[in-house]
Design a protein that fits this description.
- With 794 residues, the protein is of the alpha+beta class.
- The chain contains 22 helices and 34 strands.
- 39% of the residues lie in helices and 22% in strands.
- α14 links the parallel β21 and β22.
- α2 runs antiparallel to α3, α3 packs antiparallel against α4 and α4 packs antiparallel against α5.
C-alpha cells in the first residue's frame, strides 16, 4: 500500500506539511506527529532503498558469478582455485556495506515502533519487557550492523574476508538474542510480578487511549437509581415523553413503501432522525427521501434511464411519536408534490438529483422532456435548471464523453445539444469520497430541509493507527469528527467545513489542499442547527469507553468493572442476542434545565444483564460534542434491556394477547426497546407492530412501557404511562369538566362528541368484520366499550 500512487504521494505530503500535535509520547519524548506523519515517510524511504539495494546486490552477484573463472589443474584435470573478479568483489562489498547500514537504520526505526505494537500482553504499546530487553538489544543489533558495514569497507582493501564473516556472525548472534532474552525475561521476571512491573505502562496505555478517542472530556455522573417515578415526574418531563420514537426504520420504510411511494419507480431507502423547531417547540422527526430507482422503471431503455427519469422527488416527514387511529404514522410532509402541514418543513425545491441511491449518469437540458412528478392522471415535466454536471459541448467533446463512458448512443442521439449536461457520480457517498479521499465518511448521511431546499449532511473523520500506546479498535487508534460535509440534492455542490479546527491531521490536510476546507462559521446557521453527533464515532467511543472508563492501572488490569454495550434477545430462541445500537432522542438530562437532542447507548457489566450506566452525546448549541456517562450504583440492581424483554414476554396478559394475535393470522413485530432516563430513574418503551399475513403494511397497535417491576401494554404511549403511573400523567387543562356522579352532568358538546366517536368505532368494527380482520375487530369493540363506559359515567 505504501507504494500505490496516491498513498505514497499522500505519505510525503503529510510529512512535508505536518502540524505538531502538541503532545509527546511518554518514552522517547517525541511529538505524536513524528509517529503519525514522519515515521511513515521514513519507513517508505527505507523500504524503497532496501528493495533497490537487494535488487542491485542480487543482480550484480549473478553477473559476476557468470564471469567467474575456475582454474583447472593440468596434471589431474580437476577444478582448482576460483578467480572472482576483483572489481566484482569490491562492488559487492560496497553494496553489502550499504545494505548493512540500511539494516542499522531500520533497526533504529524499530525502536519508536515498540510503542505501536502489542506483543500479546494485556495492553497496547511498549511493555516492561520491550523497554528493558527488546530496546537494549535493538541498540546492540544496530551497533553490530554498523560494525559489520565498517568491516565490509575494510575488507575492500584486504584480500581476506574472514573478518567480515566474523562480523556477520556477531550480527546473527545479536538477532538470535533478540528472540531469546525477551522471552526469558517475560516468563521468569515479569510474569510472576506483572501488575507491579507493568503498572507505569498500563497507565501510559490508559492515558493515550482516552486522549486519542477524545474520552478525557467525558463527564461522569453518579445516579442513585433508587428514585421511584410517579405521575408528577412524567408530567414534568412531558417533552421527553412526546419525543419518544415509536417508529423503527424497517417498519416505517414498509409503511412509506405502501402509502407514499406513489409510483413503482420511487423508493424510500433510509430514514433519518433529526429535530426541527415547529411552532416554537423542539420536535424530533423522521425524514425519508423519495428517491428514483431506475431498476424499477416499467419500461427500461436508454432514453428513459438517462434522459427522462432523472431524479427522485420530495420526502416523507413525520413526528416520531404520532400515530393515526389506523396504526399508521402521522405525516408533516407527504404526497406529490410534497405538501407540508407546518411551514417550517415546506419544500420548494423537491427534486433529488444527488442522493443515496443515485449512481447512474443522466443527461439533462436535452430535447427530451424530463419527468418531474405525477399529478393525478397527468405527469408533470420540467427540465433541470441547476448548476451541476459538465456541459456536453461540441461534437468533439461529445465524442470524448462517448469514449469515456463507452456509450455510442451518447454520440448518435439527436436529443443532446451543446447546452446539455451530464450529471455523474450522483451517489453522495461516492461523490464525497472522490472530493476528499483522505477522509473517512460516516455510514449515515442524512437529509435536511433548509429554507425550502434539500441538503445532505455527512460527517467525516480523520483517523490513524499510529498513535503511540493507544489501543486500536476497528483498525484505528485515533479519531476526530474533523469535517462536516454538505451536498445539495439539486445542484450537487459539495462544501467541506472544518468542524474540529484543533485536530492536527485536518490542519495538515488544510495546508496540503488550501482553500478546500471552509471554517465552521461559514456554514449557514439553519444548517448548523441540524448538526448532530455522528453515530459511527459515538459507537466507537462507547466500545472503547466500556473498558477505559477504568482509569486506574490496577482496576484496568483486573478488568473488575468492564462494561459491554447492552444486548437484547433475538426475535426467536434460535437467534443470538443483538447488541443495541445508539439512538437519537430528545430528552432532559438529569440536572439539566431543558430538553435537548442527544445520542444515547446503555451499558451492562461484562457477562451480566443488569444496567451499569448509560452514555450520551449532546448535539445542541454550545453543548455540541459533549459526552456524559451516568453510572448506577454497583450494589443496586437496575434492570437491563435483556431482563426487561424477558419480563415483557413472561407477562401473562401480554403473552395471552400475543398468542391471540398470532392465532388470528397476524405477525407480531417487536420494535426497538428504548431506554428513557427520567430524572434519576428509567422507563423502557417498546412499540409493537402487527402485520397481517396477506398485507404488507405494519400497523403500530400497542406500546409497551416498563418501569421498576411494572409493565403495561396499551394502544398508545399515554395510556400505557397512565396505567403505570396514574391518569394524571398528562398536563391538565386550565378548566376541567367533572365527570357525572360528582354533582355534574356531561356537557352536551361532550356527549355529542362521545356519541359520534362510538358511531365511528361501531362502523369500523363492522368494516373489520366484513374484511375478516378479527384482530382489528376485537380492538374496535374494546374501544367502543370504553367509549360507552365514559358516556354512562362509570
Amino acid at each position: 500500500a505504501a507504494f500505490s500512487g496516491w498513498n505514497l504521494g499522500e505519505t510525503f505530503l503529510r510529512y512535508f506539511y505536518q502540524v505538531p500535535f502538541g503532545a509527546a509520547d511518554p518514552i522517547f519524548g517525541r511529538d505524536i506527529a513524528f509517529y503519525v506523519f514522519t515515521m511513515p515517510a521514513l519507513e517508505a524511504v527505507s523500504l524503497l532503498a532496501l528493495l533497490v539495494l537487494i535488487v542491485n546486490l542480487v543482480g550484480a552477484a549473478l553477473i559476476y558469478l557468470a564471469h567467474t573463472r575456475v582454474e583447472t589443474n593440468k596434471r589431474t584435470r580437476k577444478s582448482g582455485k576460483i578467480e572472482f573478479p576483483t572489481a566484482g568483489r569490491t562492488h559487492l562489498l560496497s553494496l553489502g556495506a550499504a545494505l548493512l547500514l540500511l539494516v542499522a537504520w531500520k533497526t533504529y526505526l524499530a525502536m519508536p515502533n515498540l510503542l505501536l505494537i502489542n506483543d500479546g500482553g494485556s495492553f497496547f504499546g511498549a511493555s516492561y519487557t520491550d523497554l528493558n530487553a527488546v530496546l537494549p538489544l535493538l541498540w546492540v543489533q544496530m551497533a553490530a550492523a554498523v560494525l559489520a558495514a565498517a568491516v565490509a569497507v575494510v575488507c575492500i582493501f584486504r584480500k581476506s574476508s574472514k573478518l567480515f564473516l566474523t562480523a556477520m556472525g556477531l550480527l546473527i548472534f545479536t538477532a538470535a538474542a533478540g528472540w531469546i532474552y525477551p522471552a526469558v525475561l517475560q516468563r521468569f521476571s515479569v510474569g510472576p510480578n506483572e501488575l507491579v512491573k507493568e503498572t507505569p505502562f498500563i497507565r501510559h496505555n490508559i492515558e493515550a487511549t482516552r486522549a486519542a478517542f477524545n474520552l478525557n472530556s467525558v463527564e461522569e455522573r453518579e445516579l442513585s437509581g433508587a428514585t421511584a417515578l410517579n405521575a408528577a415526574d412524567i408530567r414534568e418531563n412531558q417533552r421527553t415523553i412526546n419525543n419518544i420514537r415509536l417508529w423503527d426504520q424497517q417498519p416505517l420504510l414498509d409503511v412509506f413503501g405502501q402509502i407514499q411511494e406513489i409510483r413503482t419507480y420511487y423508493e424510500f431507502q433510509s430514514v433519518d432522525n433529526d429535530r426541527y423547531l415547529i411552532n416554537g417547540e423542539l420536535r424530533q422527526v423522521m425524514i425519508s427521501p423519495r428517491e428514483l430507482n431506475a431498476a424499477s422503471l416499467p419500461n427500461r431503455n436508454w432514453i428513459n434511464e438517462h434522459l427522462t427519469f432523472t431524479h427522485g422527488y420530495g420526502a416523507a416527514v413525520g413526528p416520531v411519536d404520532k400515530v393515526t387511529p389506523e396504526g399508521l404514522p402521522e405525516l408533516f410532509v407527504k404526497d406529490l408534490p410534497p405538501t407540508a402541514t407546518v411551514p417550517e418543513l415546506k419544500i420548494d425545491r423537491p427534486e433529488i438529483y444527488f442522493g443515496e441511491m443515485s449512481n447512474e449518469r443522466v443527461y439533462v437540458n436535452t430535447k427530451t422532456e424530463e419527468f418531474s412528478h405525477p399529478a393525478g392522471e397527468q405527469n408533470v415535466f420540467r427540465n433541470y435548471t441547476g448548476e451541476g454536471g459538465l456541459p456536453i459541448g461540441s461534437t468533439l467533446e461529445q465524442l470524448m464523453f462517448a469514449t469515456r463512458y463507452a456509450d455510442l448512443k451518447l454520440l448518435l442521439s439527436e436529443d443532446l445539444t451543446a447546452e446539455s449536461r451530464v450529471l455523474k457520480t450522483r451517489n453522495i457517498r461516492e461523490r464525497l469520497q472522490k472530493v476528499a479521499p483522505y477522509l473517512r465518511f460516516d455510514n449515515d448521511p442524512y437529509l435536511v430541509i433548509s429554507e425550502g431546499k434539500l441538503i445532505w449532511i455527512a460527517d467525516a473523520y480523520t483517523t490513524t493507527n499510529r498513535y503511540p500506546y493507544s489501543q486500536p479498535t476497528d483498525g484505528i487508534n485515533y479519531i476526530r469528527n474533523a469535517v462536516k460535509a454538505t451536498v445539495d440534492a439539486y445542484h450537487g455542490a459539495v462544501n467541506l467545513y472544518a468542524a474540529d479546527a484543533s485536530d492536527p491531521i485536518i490542519q495538515t490536510y488544510a495546508r496540503i489542499f488550501p482553500n478546500t476546507l471552509k471554517p465552521m462559521a461559514e456554514m449557514p446557521e439553519n444548517l448548523r442547527a441540524h448538526m448532530r453527533y455522528p453515530e459511527d464515532q459515538f459507537l466507537l467511543q462507547a466500545r472503547v469507553f466500556a473498558a477505559y472508563h477504568m482509569n486506574e492501572p490496577q482496576e484496568f488490569y483486573n478488568q473488575e468493572d468492564r462494561w459491554t454495550i447492552a444486548q437484547i434477545p433475538g426475535a426467536s430462541e434460535k437467534e443470538q442476542p443483538k447488541t443495541m445500537e445508539p439512538y437519537y432522542t430528545i430528552m432532559k438530562l438529569p440536572e439539566e434545565q431543558k430538553e435537548e437532542f442527544i445520542l444515547m447507548l446503555p451499558f451492562t457489566p461484562q457477562r451480566k444483564d443488569n444496567l451499569a450506566a448509560w452514555m450520551v452525546a449532546r448535539s445542541d448549541g454550545e453543548n455540541y460534542g459533549k459526552l456524559a456517562a451516568y453510572r448506577f450504583p454497583k450494589q443496586q440492581l437496575v434492570f437491563g434491556p435483556k431482563q426487561i424483554v424477558a419480563r415483557i414476554t413472561q407477562d401473562p396478559e401480554i403473552s395471552r394477547q400475543l398468542t391471540l394475535w398470532n392465532q388470528r393470522g397476524s405477525r407480531v413485530i417487536f420494535g426497538t426497546l428504548m431506554v428513557i432516563p427520567i430524572k434519576e430513574s428509567l422507563i423502557y418503551v417498546q412499540p409493537l407492530y402487527l402485520r397481517a399475513e396477506s398485507g404488507k403494511i405494519p400497523e403500530l397497535r400497542r406500546v409497551i412501557v416498563a418501569s421498576d417491576n411494572r409493565t403495561a401494554m396499551e394502544e398508545t404511549l399515554d395510556k400505557s404511562l397512565a396505567r403505570l403511573f396514574g391518569e394524571e400523567t398528562k398536563p391538565q387543562p386550565a378548566t376541567e369538566i367533572k365527570p357525572p356522579g360528582d354533582g355534574q352532568t356531561t356537557a352536551p358538546s361532550d356527549s355529542t362528541a362521545l356519541l359520534e366517536q362510538a358511531r365511528r368505532q361501531y362502523e369500523s368494527a363492522l368494516e373489520a368484520q366484513r374484511a375478516g380482520d378479527w384482530s382489528k375487530y376485537g380492538e374496535e369493540v374494546k374501544k367502543l366499550g370504553e367509549t360507552l363506559e365514559k358516556m354512562s359515567g362509570r
